[in-house]
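Is this the right way to post structure tokens for a design question? Let me know if I should format differently. Anyway, here goes:
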């Protein structure tokens, strides 16, 4: 009986410490959640629809791309950006800020002025393309899309305050610049 109670108290204490970010450490998650600024909010609110569109574009590749390299790249983009959407959504909810709504179907009108975002007409063309035409269009559009994300992430790195957001921004700059180089190389092979 005593062991059971001790185990229950220990488990409760561990959950409490985990929820508090490690228990008493001044750099804990609960403390850093409060240290964000308007740039951090803007970054998350802008990058969520930006990543959603990249995922939407990447999902098209499986059934439309001719090149296995394009299909592989699209799968990696989808795998990398989906979890970031979830993370940024969590930040916005924690900060009691508006989370951008998912656009239904191919409606991108609300975000078409954002750096690197494709408009409805471009997305419609990509959706109708297949084979080598799709590959070329996808790569060209995704280079532009990634360049917009790098621009947004660079601003976050320079002006953001929330450590996790600026770290994610750094990861985006590194990963997407590498993918831009890869895509430009693939475009040169066509």
């Amino acid at each position: 009986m005593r062991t059971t109670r001790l185990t229950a108290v220990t488990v409760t204490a561990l959950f409490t410490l985990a929820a508090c970010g490690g228990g008493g450490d001044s750099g804990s998650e609960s403390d850093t959640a409060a240290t964000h600024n308007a740039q951090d909010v803007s970054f998350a609110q802008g990058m969520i629809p930006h990543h959603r569109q990249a995922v939407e574009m990447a999902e098209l590749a499986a059934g439309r791309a001719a090149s296995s390299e394009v299909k592989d790249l699209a799968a990696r983009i989808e795998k990398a950006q989906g979890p970031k959407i979830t993370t940024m959504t969590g930040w916005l909810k924690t900060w009691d800020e508006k989370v951008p709504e998912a656009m239904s179907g191919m409606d991108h009108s609300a975000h078409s002025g954002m750096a690197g975002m494709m408009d409805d007409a471009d997305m419609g063309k990509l959706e109708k393309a297949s084979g080598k035409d799709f590959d070329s269009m996808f790569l060209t559009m995704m280079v532009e899309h990634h360049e917009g994300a790098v621009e947004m992430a660079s601003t976050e790195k320079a002006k953001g305050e929330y450590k996790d957001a600026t770290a994610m921004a750094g990861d985006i700059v590194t990963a997407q610049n590498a993918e831009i180089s890869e895509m430009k190389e693939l475009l040169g092979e066509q």
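Format looks fine. Someone answered above. Worth noting: The radius of gyration is 20 Å. DSSP finds seven helices and no strands in the chain.
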